[in-house]
Design the sequence.
């Protein structure tokens, strides 16, 4: 554990409820899974009863995702991925995304907590030097998570795992166009703002329009790929 984390400065009985809440929310941030209760008790030095009470409060408030006790993530089963990849193509992936993601945006506008909205807004703008596909995936996963439907989130993560598999994704030989990155960020920011405004209709419509643009990019790459080598199956990358 880092020598500079607040966790090292305040632990056990000296850790206030507010400090404990902040630590747990930070540890359960985007693309992170909280350690087990046993690990948290050991790391934080707090009684399990106190830890459970705070975890329950944070989950009820929407600051942490629901507990997933006894449920194994489908993302960890590589045999399922191999089977899906064998029948998937880029068109299938974006078609299914267009079914799921507008509804995620709608649900996020209704259900997301203030902390989740802040995370969505933060991930809507890619950082300088950040990988194009990584930044895109972070934003869309935040929306799936903020829909507050754990089953839908698992299905979506599985879909994106298939879509980013090297056997399915469209290979890109040149860096993404800066104009396309700026347009992508602007579309993400508009969706994030609609969610912050609690406008589910607008959030859903903006997400659908965004994915239409993503589909156009994919179709253009597929046409270019097929024109260059009609006998090869295209591979798909993050948009």
Sequence:
């Amino acid at each position: 554990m880092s020598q500079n984390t607040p966790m090292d400065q305040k632990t056990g009985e000296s850790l206030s409820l507010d400090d404990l809440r902040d630590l747990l929310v930070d540890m359960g941030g985007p693309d992170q899974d909280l350690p087990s209760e046993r690990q948290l008790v050991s790391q934080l030095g707090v009684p399990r009863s106190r830890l459970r009470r705070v975890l329950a409060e944070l989950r009820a408030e929407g600051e942490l995702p629901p507990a997933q006790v006894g449920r194994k993530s489908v993302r960890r089963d590589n045999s399922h991925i191999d089977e899906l990849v064998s029948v998937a193509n880029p068109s299938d992936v974006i078609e299914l995304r267009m079914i799921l993601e507008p509804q995620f945006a709608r649900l996020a506008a209704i259900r997301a907590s203030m902390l989740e909205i802040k995370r969505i807004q933060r991930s809507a703008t890619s950082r300088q030097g950040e990988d194009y596909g990584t930044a895109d995936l972070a934003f869309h996963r935040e929306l799936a998570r903020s829909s507050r439907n754990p089953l839908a989130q698992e299905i979506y993560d599985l879909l994106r795992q298939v879509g980013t598999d090297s056997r399915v994704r469209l290979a890109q030989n040149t860096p993404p166009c800066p104009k396309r990155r700026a347009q992508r960020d602007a579309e993400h920011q508009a969706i994030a703002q609609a969610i912050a405004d609690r406008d589910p209709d607008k959030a859903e419509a903006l997400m659908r329009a965004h994915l239409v643009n993503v589909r156009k990019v994919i179709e253009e790459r597929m046409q270019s790929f097929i024109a260059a080598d009609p006998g090869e199956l295209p591979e798909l990358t993050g948009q």
Observations:
- The CA atoms of residues 67 and 97 lie 25 Å apart.
